[in-house]
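Notes from the 1:1 (GR / supervisor)

We went over the backlog. Supervisor wanted to see one worked example end to end before approving the batch request, so GR pasted a single chain during the call. The sequence is below; no edits were made to it. Supervisor asked that the structure be written out right there so they could see what the output format looks like.
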Amino acid sequence: MDPSHSLRDTILDSLRSGQWRAGDRLPTERAFCEQFKLSRTSVRKVLLELKDLGLINQTVGSGTYVSEQAAAAIQGLTAASPALQISPAMLMEARLALEPAIIDMVIVNAMAADFEQMESCCAKAEAAGSVEEFELWDGMLHELIAQAAHNSFVTNVFKLMNQARAQGEWGMLKKRSLTPERRAAYQIEHRELVAALKGRDPVQARALASAHLLHVRRNLLNY
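Structure output shown during the call:
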């Protein structure tokens, strides 16, 4: 089993069993790294996924805690989890349909703070020292763009897609396909897309979003 999946399952099992309850503090990232032989980036990716699911909260300088709504969220997770077991081809098909479609909403509703977060995410992806870290910030950028639509339904759909990206098959394909040249190209495409969104240019932004996703699909799936 992938060690990151083992970490995720261990945390979920502790929540389901009641070993960890609302308000309880989880072990530190360093402790998880040592226990599961994971990088800090891999641990953060798992915690981010669980945070998106509403299971945990993170406070800078304090730590990671079980959220107040964790008990309710964990009950719905089992029913929802089969939806996450989708193939990379299905995920790319959904992304190509949905990501360009929300561009108009982002153009209309995004605020200056949204663009600042997107640009920060681009910078962190560019500085990433590993494929896993790059993939974390890559996924976060696309989620931040969705959040900039300021529509809770859209936000939840894109969180689900980001959770699907955390599945092992996607990660293996991305790791095999992500050459330094392709990563550099993705980084340029991300910057161009954010610039078009910031410039409130829906036609250019839609074209860039579609072209980027087709590029990713071609590199991942060879079509």
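Supervisor's comment: The two ends are 29 Å apart (CA to CA).
Batch request approved.
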